[in-house]
Predict the 3D structure of the following.
Amino acid sequence: MSEHELDARNLLCPLPVIRTQDAVKKLQPGDRLHVHCTDPGALHDIPTWCRINGHGVGDIVQQGREIVITVQVVAGED
Amino acid sequence: MAEQRKAVALISGGLDSMLAAKAMLEQGIRVEGINFFTGFCVEGHTHAIRRQDAAKPKRNNALWVAEQLGIKLHIVDVIEEYKDVVLNPKHGYGANLNPCLDCKIFMVHKALEWIDAHGFDFIITGEVVGQRPMSQRKDTMPVVARESGAEDRLVRPLCAQNLPATLPEREGWIDRERMYGFSGRSRKPQMALAKQYGFTEWAQPAGGCCFLTDEQYAHKLADFWQGRGERRYELDDIMLLKVGRHLRPRPHFKMIIGREEGENNFLEGYRKQFVHLRALSLEGPLALIDGHVDDSDLELAARLVCRFGKGRDAERVQVVITDLHGETRVMDVAPLSADDVPQAWYL
């Protein structure tokens, strides 16, 4: 299990989701990806993407304009 | 036991593609969704940027639809490849800069590449004969099937009964009688089917799902190409066309002026790439200058940006101007009056 960071700040939806999707493809089950974003749409979209693709959602921390969403990689991506 | 067949559905986030995918799920097909991000997708960008829209729900409708259907969704970045569709559409543009027929051919072709790479059997779209003036006409729907290369592996469940039988129908993977014969622009059959499937909510994007169909956006894009002297773009260019007021006071430069705090914050992210200015002595918006400017242009730009700030009625306002090297200077100017700003400057 390892920790990874993804900078998706200043990107608008759906780019934070696309970057998350692409990053998760390279990770292993058990890894965690901390996605840093500024588009409030990510608060809805990244957890939705995780649910429909079988991944877990960990902490969601919002500080000012920045949001950090933790994705828990569960399944290998197709 | 028969092998479960697999299809990928083009999911836009609207009702028709949702219904088309559902119709195939109902026939026991394993469906996954695919959504292409071209850079021109509407998807609430303006809402995401503008602070005054902060209370409006922000969600990607394609993801939302996928969750309602219980299917996976693959969002594919096609920004680079899509440029050729926008710049050189073989079948031309619609009412604005919308290359709808070429776009549909492109997306079905990309879906075909995807199913071939992932071992899927066919492609589903929510197209309805006669629903759209360019890409969903009786004479253009076969063009999409042919030029995309999908041919008879393209299934349109909402209007399948009006079209020749496809491979999945002939092979008995799906039942033609359990698809539909919708045609024309009426939405009533779709509403009735949504009710039948128990859907009570769906996205209804005003003005379509693509900025290229928007007259004002298309005008700004055409102006952008003219101003740059060449027809090309990068993602940042087309994103900036969605934000702020765009004014061209002189042929060789235009200004992008934030309309509120959210837009000013968004434009802040681009300020290092542009000469930019903002009122210093009285609150006002951030403005980016696109083009090459001399001192007289800068004075005009400074006077113009004051027009949209709290200093619009002041006699003099100090404006701080930052060049591309980050060097700043302050200019003391008289704001332009409303009469000094011709309507023709607005893009």
Notes: Chain A has one domain: 3-72.
